[in-house]
Amino acid sequence: TSGCYQWMVGAFFFSDSYKKSTYIHYIPQNYCMPNLYDSPTMGLSVYHQSSLRIIGGLSAKLGLRFDYEHAKENYEAYKTASAFDRTLGTPIDSYESRLNFTQLTPKFALEYLFNDDEMVYASVARGYKTGGFNSAFTSDDERTFDPEYNWNYEVGFKGSMLDHTLQADLTLFYVDWRHQQIAQTVVGVGNITRNAGHSDSKGVELGLTARPVQPLTLRLSYGYTYARFLDYEKSATVSYTGNMLPFVPRETLSFRGAYTILPCCSAINRIVR
Question: Three-class SS of residue 187?
Fold first, then answer.
């Protein structure tokens, strides 16, 4: 509406049925270890966001989201006499495990519009990712892993010129991570997800968007990220504290283009290539 106060409310639900099997072949010993997993998961969330225009171009936003997730896993392990024998028989190991997660995540943001073409903003948001089950483990306490949490701090600028033909956005961010989920490869076992103690990530992102002609949009993005473990003691003898986070590139660069076709058929709104 045209008023000073805007609001939005919504809900989300999902149900996922996931089944997996792994067969570990010990060829010299001529036997096989089939492992069967049945992992159904369901979750729901409700969320609300309020936006209030305070004075002039200054506005504030407050959001709250509540999440609930229930996960279950049925696991059975077998041993067959031959690597090619699919007769399972009686399981040598089995368990049924359940996990429940609930979390309330807030978000707060301030925005200031100088005009229709320029704005600055700052935001603080809580991030959350549920725990789960490991398909590979070396001990009972590694069968599951815990949720991870973070606080995301962000300031940025967005602007356009030449009648929105050219747009630019600049973002500075800092992420404070707790219990981050890290996948590690254990030789002869597989990948095991474990929780690190404390991590952080900080950097800058720059984006340029150009529309030289109306159907064509070009986008160039650059990012620099410095992410490291602040506190991660894997064991009494192994410490990753001070190391960089795996799979987080220091620099990223991307370019993409889109061409929009307006079809003559009224049943299709647009085609983007």
Answer: coil
Q: Which two tokens stand for residue 188?
A: 């002869």
Q: Which amino acid belongs to residue 68?
A: Y
Our CA angle for 75, 81, 87, nearest 5°, is: 60
Beta bridge partners of 98: 72
Cβ of 132: how many Cβ atoms within 10 Å? Answer: 19
The structure tokens 């359940």 sit at 98
* In the predicted structure, residue 102 carries a pLDDT above the cut 90: yes
Per-residue pLDDT of 9-30, as tens digits, reads: 999 999 999 898 888 888 888 8
CB distance 149 to 175 below 8 Å: no
How many CA within 13 A on the CB side of residue 191? 6
Read off the pLDDT band of 84 (50, 70, 90). low
Reported as type and span, the H/E element at residue 32 is strand 31-55
Token duo for residue 255: 């370019």
Q: Say whether pTM exceeds 0.85.
A: no
Tokens 């076709």 -> residue: 261
